[in-house]
Amino acid sequence: MAAGCFPVADLFHTIQGEGSLAGVPSVFVRLAGCPVGCPWCDTKQAWSAEGFPRLTVERITERVASYKCRHVVVTGGEPLVHPRIGSLIDRFHDGGLHVTIETAGIVYRRLRCQLLSLSPKLDGEAPTFGNWFKPAVIRRLIAAAADYQLKFVVRSRRDVQQVLDAIERMEFIDRDRVMLMPRAATKAAYLRLAPAVAGWALAHGLRFCPRIHLTLGVR
Questions:
Q1: In terms of DSSP bridges, do strands 148-154 and 115-118 run parallel, antiparallel, or are they unpaired?
Q2: Are the C-beta atoms of 37 and 76 separated by less than 8 Å?
Q3: What is the CATH architecture of 5-216?
Q4: Are the C-beta atoms of 7 and 53 separated by less than 8 Å?
Q5: 205 — alpha (psi -120 to 50), left (phi > 0) or beta?
Q6: Which of 30, 33, 119, 184 can pair with 10 through a Cys bridge, CB separation 3.0 to 4.6 Å?
Q7: Is the dihedral of CA 60, 84, 76, 209 positive or negative?
Q8: At residue 135, does pLDDT exceed 70?
Q9: What percentage of the chain has pLDDT greater than the value 90?
């Protein structure tokens, strides 16, 4: 890959559907490339960087600016696998944008962002999934972040127990920033699961994370 270029799997304007900024108009920049391979991933096409256009920082920022939107979300894939990601983030900051970075927290990069949105992948979530839960990396990312949230995707009581176990291993986090989010790829699946997840969140004093884009049928 050419220096300063990134494989862009998608770039689009929509509302943020999840987390503390749910409902905020945002431009999503989806960078391709992810080593994790979550079995339930809804963007598996972005696992490999092959086949996607390599765009310069200048071209990406031009396209983002064309939407005249103040919020930009850098997602993946796993955006932090790109060593030069800081150059793109810095350019967004120079343009006065609010930057959210969505990451699994598996690679440390010291980056400027207004919101670090972590979605840790827990041990044993699938038989061949591997160990991608990195508390030490998450600690460093949070320490360098202006603000952060942790979104855990769940669909069962077992998943919730794994989240509770993970919270105990991460004594450095603010529990009020921990969210449980229904694991669903369709509106119907989301609506079936959401009441149970909301109940689990309530029972354990955690936040429920909606998925507005699924209920509205938008990206």
A1: parallel
A2: no
A3: Alpha-Beta Barrel (3.20)
A4: yes
A5: left
A6: 30
A7: negative
A8: yes
A9: 83
